[in-house]
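Ligand: heme C. Inputs:
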Amino acid sequence: MQIRYNWFPILLSVIIAFIIINAVWDHYEQPEQKITISDANCWTGAGTNQIPVDADGELIRYGRKLIENTAYYLGPKGTVAHISNGMNCQNCHLEAGTKPWGNNYGAVASTYPKYRERSGHIESIEKRVNDCFERSLNGQAIDSLSKEMRAMVAYIKWLGKEIPKDTKPKGTGIMDLAYLTRAADPLKGKTVYITTCEKCHGKNGEGQINPDQTGYTYPPLWGNNSYNIGAGLFRLSRLAGYVKNNMPNPLNYHNPQLTDEQSWDVAAYINSQPRPAKDVSYDWPKIKSKPFDHPFGPYADSFTEEQHKYGPFEEIIQKAKLKNQK
Ligand code: HEC
Ligand code: HEC
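Predicted complex:
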């Protein structure tokens, strides 16, 4: 009897201790279960064969075609209209916006409409698509109610339909690379360009037009037919992050060929070359919200346009953080 009476509190303490240790363990262990870059659990978009076979599916399928082959429909010799520069959305939103770290559309349906600092307004998906028409495709906005816009938006919404509102799955968009401690160097980048990129994109970044002249086999990286100075890729971090995980085409984030350093330098070379102009003076109406790598002043800090374009970026970011804490 005596023995049994003593066992109870001991057993109880052991159980309670076990529960506490477990809880504490979980609490501290969780954040360390970081997913490494090489893991396969990045968001990847559904393919064409998963698009439903009904009226909705027909619009979605047309949207995907417009994104894959924009020039055929809307380029300089487009069958529907002539409002863009001959590039395809897919040149930058790879595999029709489904490729992990390929500037995909995974987080668009879940995060739009949203407030964007660049315009200072709440933007719909339609507005965001037109931003790319006016900047990345150096063209004109299309009517929000046109069949083409409705189709592209239907496709983008369909791709992201399973992502919960306001979440951004891993692998969506463009990867942020570690910053260099020096400014990115166009001259070093030129060497990378000549050895790794030139054979497809051309000596003068002009790309290569396809045989039937409806678009590009290799899209241009600078010059009159490329994205303009208001485009996302004109920000060095966007271009470097895109190149690192996707170029030379068609590699992916599992086996990048360039180091971060080479990616920043080749981006500096590409963005130091001539390209179409755009009035960007209305962008980022709140100067304080300009991203560190927006290459046009005025700025809320005293760093030069040159440093905002090529870096080093760390000190710009640190200064902005300090300012915001005050
Ligand atoms: C020259 C490259 C380029 C082309 C061509 C291009 N885009 Fe973009 N697009 C970008 C970049 C860069 C971003 C911004 C990515 C970032 O900030 O991380 C972007 C962003 C977007 C977004 C918002 C993504 C998000 O998650 O917030 C949408 C939607 C979009 N583009 C649609 C299109 C469509 C549709 C077309 C064709 C009509 C197109 N883009 C053509 C480069 C391009
Ligand atoms: C084997 C040919 C090839 C090589 C080499 C190559 N690319 Fe590309 N690149 C492509 C193709 C093809 C696309 C368009 C992909 C698509 O539409 O699916 C592209 C797209 C791009 C784009 C986005 C579209 C644009 O025109 O702005 C950039 C930026 C780019 N490449 C940069 C580079 C850089 C930098 C290198 C060298 C590190 C490089 N590429 C090497 C074939 C190549």
